[in-house]
Design brief:
It is a single chain. With 460 residues, this protein is of the alpha/beta class. The protein contains 15 helices and 15 strands. The chain has a six-stranded mixed β-sheet. A four-stranded parallel β-sheet has the order 5-4-3-6, sandwiched between helices. Helix 1 packs across helix 5, helix 7 packs across helix 8 and helix 10 crosses helix 15. The chain is globular, with a radius of gyration of 25 Å.
Length: 460
């Protein structure tokens, strides 16, 4: 009988498939390595098994122990599968930008999930890295695989993924493209492929804002790749090129792959495919580009495959007058986004409101261009007036201590009707374009836009 002993025996040996629709017009061959066909649905099954194997061998994880790990979801699933088979408890920490599907999936395996804020530094005590470190120390029998620094992570790809790609392409692969998260996949596959042929080009696909492509780690919306620090599992010496990819290009490319190829992929796969298309554009018929698809789109149905979510973040547009049209109609005298920072004082915030003649503004953690996660709240002239009247000493307090909740948000492509609806209960709306706050719409702005439109029947 053709029977495997357990699900863990099915990890690896994922197929290659030609992307002939998305890659139409290319002279080279574009192939996808379908890692979502691993038992846990992602490439992370490979290092999950490897890290637990090594921990058991070295006595770091003992029977009845607890696996504690910060994860964006996929590594957690791989570890949860291993834990289910081998009798371990699992506790995972995740950043709050992760989809609800991923959280629910981990809990389905019996894991405990602790959600932590995204927009804090890695060393912050509330970051999902720091919380995992603390729990691993406090829980008796706790073991943290630490995929960001565990050499078993890239080693799993040196042993399996890289050789598979070489064998499946009959040694013809010339370019390998993958998103960079922990760095384990690209480093391990890169080392293996360059061991077979030093001329193979290894290309990293990186979210806009991540450190790998020169960013500072500021937030982005795509999940599972990019970092705000440098993991030791990343070996930059085997990476020949890094392509920076925006959230917009990532999400729209993922949707394109799903609809044109019939392969349901996640946002990070969109990042990798977009980068692969950029690389492949100038290649010839003897070149073979392999792009790694790290996971399925099933974990993102409430986000990048949700038309309302895409519209809310300014990734898509509706027919008819939109928020972008209202912003374009504004006189242009003001900066695109009048704002204040949490550490600035109430007095400084009042000065900014008076200087620009506005009645409210967002409180943001950095200078534009911003990500939606960097909007901390909002301030309104009425609230500051009441505060200053009641407590004059409050004028020198940080605005972050007294700010109100953030303004409601809408995408640039959403309708004026949506703006009118939101402004019925709020004095202003923050407008996002590709996940980036770019301006504010007030009731006055909408009135100005509506009054400038030709009246029905005009010109007859």
């Amino acid at each position: 009988m053709d029977v495997h002993e357990s699900l863990l025996d099915l990890v690896g040996n994922t197929p290659l498939v030609r992307l002939d629709r998305v890659g139409k017009g290319l002279r080279c061959m574009l192939l996808a390595k379908l890692e979502q066909l691993n038992p846990g649905g992602s490439v992370k099954d490979r290092p999950a098994v490897a890290m637990v194997d090594v921990a058991e061998r070295d006595g770091l994880l003992k029977p009845g122990g607890t696996i504690v790990e910060p994860t964006s979801g996929n590594t957690g699933v791989g570890l949860a599968i291993v834990a289910a088979r081998r009798g371990y408890r699992c506790v995972f920490t995740m950043p709050d930008k992760m989809s609800q599907e991923k959280i629910s999936l981990l809990r389905a395996y019996g894991a405990e999930v602790i959600v932590c804020p995204t927009a804090v530094a890695p060393e912050h005590p509330e970051s999902y890295y720091s919380v995992a470190n603390r729990l691993a120390r406090e829980i008796p029998g706790g073991f943290q695989p630490n995929q960001y620094h565990n050499p078993a992570n890239p080693a799993s790809h040196v042993a399996s993924t890289g050789p598979e790609i070489w064998r499946q392409t009959d040694g013809r692969v010339t370019h390998f493209v993958a998103g960079i998260g922990t760095g384990g996949t690209i480093s391990g596959v890169g080392k293996a492929l360059k061991g077979f042929s030093p001329t193979v080009q290894i290309v990293g696909a990186d979210p806009e804002g991540s450190v790998y492509s020169g960013g500072t780690g500021r937030p982005y919306l795509v999940e599972g790749i990019g970092e705000d620090f440098w993991p030791t599992t990343y070996d930059g010496s085997v990476v020949d090129k890094i392509v920076m990819v925006s959230d917009r290009d990532s999400f729209l490319t993922a949707r394109r792959v799903t609809r044109e190829e019939g392969i349901l992929v996640g946002g990070s796969a969109g990042t990798a495919v977009w980068a692969a298309l950029e690389v492949a554009r100038d290649l010839g018929p003897d070149d073979v580009v392999v792009v790694l698809i790290p996971d399925s789109g099933r974990g993102y149905l409430s986000k990048l495959y949700n038309d309302s979510w895409m519209a809310d973040y300014g990734f898509s547009s509706t027919e008819g007058p939109s928020a972008a049209d209202v912003l374009a109609r504004k006189d242009g005298v003001l900066p695109e986004l009048v704002h204040v920072h949490p550490e600035e004082t109430v007095r400084q915030a009042i000065d900014i409101l008076r200087e620009y003649g506005v009645s409210q503004m967002p409180v943001v953690k950095h200078e534009p261009p911003l990500n939606a996660a960097e909007v901390a709240g909002a301030v309104h002239d009425r609230d500051l007036m009441e505060l200053a009247f009641r407590d004059p000493a409050a004028l020198d307090r940080p605005i972050g201590d007294v700010m109100g909740p953030a303004l409601p948000r809408m995408g640039t492509g959403e309708s004026v009707e949506m703006a009118v609806e939101l402004l019925g209960s709020a004095p202003a709306v923050l407008v996002l374009d590709g996940g980036h706050p770019i301006g504010i719409i007030t009731r006055s702005d909408v009135l100005g836009f509506l009054s400038a439109r030709p009246s029905p029947g005009a010109g007859r």
